[in-house]
Each structure stands twice: as C-alpha cells, then as structure tokens.
C-alpha cells in the first residue's frame, strides 16, 4: 500500500517568507508526528497528533511554527517569517496507536532558507 | 529526562568487518527500543525493535538485545556489506507520553 508522502520534496525560500509543508499519512494511522533533521543533528521532535486529541506541541521551537491536521488525516506544518536557521529536512511519520508503535516515515521535505 | 545516547560517528569499516554501534538510554518506565536506518537518499525505516527486557531484535543480519541492567541496546552485525552504508538511529518509545526519543544518528560507511 501507499506509504507516507510529503510535499514538496524540496523548497527554497527567502528569509521572511512563510512556507507550508504537507504530509499525507498512511490511511488508518491515527498518530502523526513531525520532526526536524538538521545537518549533523539527530531528529528533533516538533509536534504530535493523535486522533481528535489536542496535539502535543511541546517540541515546536518558536511561535513561528504551527501545524494542523484536518479530518484526522492530512497535516500541514507552517513556518512563518522563515529564518536561515530553519533550513533543515522536515520529516513526517505516522503510526497506529498500539503499545509497540512503529513509525513509518515519509521521504521528507528539504527546506532551504536563503 | 528521557533520552537516548548513541555512539558518535562517522564509522568507516572494511567489508566483512564486525560492527557495533553503542546505544544507551535513560527512561522513566519501561520503554520499547528501536533501531531505524536511513539509506542515502531515502527516508528512515525500521530496522529492528525490542519491546521488553532481554528481548533480541534482529533483521538483515543485524541484532540488538534490550539490556535493562545496563540500559543499553547496542546494534551489532558480524559481517558488514557495502550496502549497509547508512545512518543508524537508536530510539525509544514510552507509551505514557506517546513520544519517540531519537539519538543523533551514527553514520556508517563500508568500503570494499
């Protein structure tokens, strides 16, 4: 079946512009995660959605970052007034909510802020 | 807090050499432990997992044993291949918080 998809695969933007990154999780997966992977760094947790519960936003680095998930499926990560330090690969993952979750990752969106 | 510490890279090995990538964790409770792999140009994918103490996860010749006494989950392979060149991430999951904690990743390059 189809895996997690993300779009765009690459995004180049100018400092100060807003960007939207999209994630389509695997059908039926109720949990959705966003991570950021910077060069030479590990995965940094950003936000977690589970069903209709309030999202866990504890990883968002600033109020310029926000995310929503519509209809319990597609999610959009928005970065307002982008800065050069926002340049990274943004990864989305989805999973079934079971005790021994396995996350399925999308290919990521490489964001470059000039 | 809950966290994962893994061996820093990069690691370069000759084909057929033995591999060990160390991973230790700190967790309140009883986590599940994972190794994910990221091949060049691809997304992360699950390599193996262990859900309780003394469990051994294995896949593609890789193994890791969940050691509660040493809070470790070291990744091992007896004979690496060029195709094993990738970045390896250790991770833990605590269902109390529904959050994964990833290590910083270890880059492995296997040369012929």
Please report the number of helical segments of chain B: 0
Largest sheet of chain B: 6 strands, mixed
Kindly report the greatest chain-chain contact and the residue count on each side. Answer: A-B, 24 and 21 residues
Specify the structural class of chain B.
mainly beta
What can you see in these coordinates?
- The complex is a heterodimer of chains A (114) and B (112).
- Chain A has strands at 5-7, 10-13, 19-24, 31-37, 43-50, 65-69, 75-79, 88-95, 104-105, 109-113.
- In chain A, strands 2, 4, 5, 8, 9 and 10 form a 6-stranded mixed sheet that branches.
- In chain A, strand 6 (65-69) and strand 7 form a beta hairpin.
- The N and C termini of chain A lie far apart (37 Å).
- With 114 residues, chain A is mainly β.
- Chain B is mainly β.
- Helix content of chain B is 0%, strand content 53%.
- In chain B, 36% of the residues are buried.
- The chains are: A mainly beta (114), B mainly beta (112).
- Chains A and B meet through strand 4, strand 5 and strand 9 of A and strand 5, strand 6 and strand 11 of B.
